[in-house]
Amino acid sequence: MVDVRRVKLPGVGVLHTFVTDDGGKVGVITHRSGHSDLISFADADDQDHARKVSLRLDEDEAHTLAELLGGTKITESLSSLDQIPGLSIDWFTVDYEDYIAGQPLGNLASKGVVGLTVVAVVRGDSANPAPAADFKVFPGDTLVVAGSPEKVARAFSFYRTGEMKKAPVDASPGS
User: What is the 3-state secondary structure (H, E, C) of 18-62?
Assistant: First the structure.
């Protein structure tokens, strides 16, 4: 299992890093804006191989890269369902600044979002399928949700801000 280090970058977002088996160092900076930077770098004492590569990805590109690199088993299993018209399956990674961080999932139906399901909460290497309303969500958790694209977008907005806004029909859930 890979040892992933997490560092909060005040005013920027979160940095996750790990060292590969061949000594390479890889990091992802997840910005508060939703963009991610994929970076590889060397320590100061690794002068012979001192290279740094940085690539800026928007949210869709980051999700695509994660899938290409072997996304979570849940998203692999759900990908075939994503082809059903009117059904959107998406994931929301909880950050420290998000309203839902440290809160129970609650019941979105009581807030007017009927027909949306939190399929699972992924925490580390484990999944918590069909979590109850009192399931507490923490930064770093990933919520896997299913519903119409509009309802998924509304839920993600609520998870970020705590406010229930009506999302435009053509808005992507992750935006």
Answer: EECCCCCEEEEEEECCCCEEEEEECCCCCHHHCCCEEEEECHHHH
